[in-house]
Amino acid sequence: MDFFFEVLTGGLLAGVMYSLIAIGFVLIYKASGVFNFAQGAMVLFAALTFVSLVERGVPFWGAFALTLAAIVALALLIERAVLRPLVNRSPITLFMATLGLSYVIEGAAQALWGAQVHGLDLGIADEPLELGGMLLSQFDLFAAGTAALLVALLSFLFNRTRLGLSLRAVADDALGALAIGIRLPRIWAVVWAVAGFVGLVAGLLWGARLGVQFSLSLVVLKALPVLIIGGFTSMTGAIVGGLIVGAGEKLAEVYLGPLVGGGIENWFPYALALLFLLVRPAGLFGERAIERV
Amino acid sequence: MFYTEAGQFSSHYRTDRRLFRLRQDRYSLYALLLFAFAVVPFIGSDYWLNAILTPFLVLSLAGLGLNLLTGYAGQLSLGSAAFMAVGAFATYNLELRVPGLPLLGSIVLGGVFAAAASVLFGLPSLRIKGFYLLVSTLAAQFFVQWLFTKVGWFSNDNASGVITAPPLVIAGHDLSNPAGRYLLTLGFVVALTLLARNVVKSELGRNWMAVRDMDTAAAVIGIPLARTKLLAFALSGFILGVAGALWAFTYLGTVEPHGFDLSRSFQVLFIIIIGGLGSIAGNFLGAAFIVLLPIALSLASGFMPAGVIDAGQLENLQKIVFGLLIIGFLIKEPEGLARLWQQLRERARVWPLRY
User: Fold this and answer.
1) Of these four, A175, B110, B230, B318, which has the most CB atoms within 10 Å of its CB?
2) Long-range contacts of A143-152 (CB under 8 A, 24+ apart)
3) What is the CA radius of gyration of chain B?
4) Per-residue pLDDT tens for B272-312?
């Protein structure tokens, strides 16, 4: 039983890492209705820029600030060059545009900084820590703490600031928000920049774990089931979904994996998400679309 | 657009309903088919037949399969490569384990297996919609790849899951030379394209489009949603399965499950975006574009002074150009190359005396 709880806790902590990616998705989907496949590419871009700056001798916080500036610039560019011309197009078109965008960002990031694997050391030992009889990864605990801080920061931004108010207004009703004088393009740029910031945090944590390389952009595929279980529109959903996927994946790997020959972590989250969807077609916390003819 | 020509009248409903109503369309199609079947195999070099025409045809077919599902029936899918893999592996196993089954039979049956898999993973579409459906097709993508890698039976216990083409013999004719493989592919592509074109014009095709445009409204006017959606998955899966078998056996010769990974699914999706969603001809234009672009880019970089662009950068550059093209197409011409081609034709009709 102890072993079960150890696996479960390990899975829950790993799930937080998925939530980090999913939060970036939710931000953009809520504010602009875009299903942003390029979030993984943004994670890669952020982590790669950061690492390359650090390797060139820029101190940690300097590199962090510069990367953040680069991401904000990227967000402005995306808003101007992709979102604005595609305004009022169908969601599927916007999704495909972000697919193209992810190619551009991945290509550009690698053309700029090279395709080799960079190590990233955040100064946190990845050693197991004994807590109440369970061995937990110190790094995972740190990641969970960071995620909690990030969520607190984001909910402060959303619920306690003027900017957050307009963000929520846009998420609620874009046309209504436009009518009362909220500038949609600016809101979009802000949201993409914030999502880029979340991507930077996620990129640093994932990069420290996996090494900063191309496969970092594939974490988007890990975040997708998380997002789908939680629902596209809910930040709480992203967290809960991450925990469910993390725990389910670890448990399945330990208890189910040996029965079928292992390697199931690629598809198991999707099967899990599918089960959730059959019961709740819009995810656990997603808004149910009401359709009128 | 919907147009007809002066002097070409239909005096029967039958002639009005035919696939190509315009005489010039029909004749140019016949000429094209004659050229493709009778002339190309003789004049094409092995390089052209093997490395350009065959992959072009197979990818067009795969695009056609996905286009029926996404472009016509409106069900977004990122699992095309999975169904291609099912088609390829099923064909391989049928050839291996069912004695006396002719090659054509096993390719078609392979397509049937892919259709069954596609329907299975399409079942959730009855309950979930839109982007949530991605999870089902992505599950197919990852599960199928895992299955064929892990379960040795499918690849006849090959250590890395590699399957090799069966002897390509039809009715005693050996088709394993480049021209033969090209002809085999072309035959399937032409037959299935005609089938798809017919289906799209039929009641089923119109139902698909109604479901795509708004499925609630379609249900209200009495279109059976479940049957319509599942038939789209079935036909799309069948065509993708045949395309997969052809990709494995007439183009590559040997293939491993990784040959059908997610990037292949994306490639097929890009074909239909660039070519045109909801268009038959678009698949061919899109596939031609996808096959020729890398070649054109590496040719272009060959003209640059040596050292400006190395191989690694070329790949990145290719990605950037690709992404930009996709965004550009979506902004400027969301209906893709097919629409551009149509506009060109409409201009050419009235050239040089525009009214």
Assistant:
1) B110
2) A143/A13, A143/A16, A143/A17, A143/A20, A143/A205, A144/A13, A144/A16, A146/A20, A146/A201, A146/A205, A147/A16, A147/A17, A147/A19, A147/A20, A147/A239, A150/A20, A150/A23, A150/A198, A150/A201, A151/A23, A151/A235, A151/A239
3) 21
4) 988 988 899 999 999 999 899 888 877 877 777 665 666 67
In 3D space, the residue among A234, A232, A229, A240 whose CA is nearest the CA of residue A277 turns out to be A229
Check pLDDT > 50 for residue B1.
no
Residues B327-345: what's their mean pLDDT?
A: 87
Contact B319/A82, CB-based, under 8 Å? Answer: no
Domain membership flag for residue B19: no
- Whole-angstrom Cα distance, residue B5 to residue B98? 52
Helix, strand, or coil here: B174?
strand
On the question of pLDDT at B177 being above 60, the answer is yes
Instruction: Give yes or no for A111 touching B (CB within 8 A).
Output: yes
- Least CB–CB distance from A100: residue in B214, B262, B326: B326
Q: Among B68, B26, B49, B86, which Cα is nearest to B268's?
A: B68
Written as one letter, the residue type at A274 is L
Which chain B residues touch A224 with a CB distance below 8 Å?
A: 134-135, 138
Q: Do A293 and B217 touch (CB under 8 A)?
A: yes
Give yes or no for residue B175 having a pLDDT over 80.
Answer: no
Question: Domain locations in chain A?
Answer: 2-212
On chain B, the residues whose CB falls within 8 A of the CB of A102 are 323
User: Is position B9 within any domain?
Assistant: no
Instruction: Please count the structural domains in chain B.
Output: 1
DSSP 8-state code for residue A129? E
Residues of chain B with Cβ-Cβ distance to A275 below 8 Å are none
Residue B110 lies in a domain: yes
Sign of CA dihedral A227, A232, A234, A237: negative
Question: Residue B92 carries which side chain, given as an amino acid letter?
Answer: Y
pLDDT digits (tens, 9 = 90+) for A48-100: 899 888 888 888 889 999 999 999 999 889 888 988 888 878 888 888 899 89
Read off the pLDDT of residues B61-117 as tens digits, 9 standing for 90 and up: 999 999 999 999 989 899 999 999 999 999 999 988 888 888 899 999 999 999 999
Tell me whether B191 touches chain A (CB under 8 Å).
no
Whose CA is closest to B64, among B255, B323, B242, B264?
B242
Q: Residue B316: its chain A contacts at CB < 8 A? A: 107-108, 110-111, 115
- How large is the ipTM? 0.84
Which residue segment(s) compose the domain that B251 sits in? 32-261
Q: Is residue B281 part of a domain?
A: no
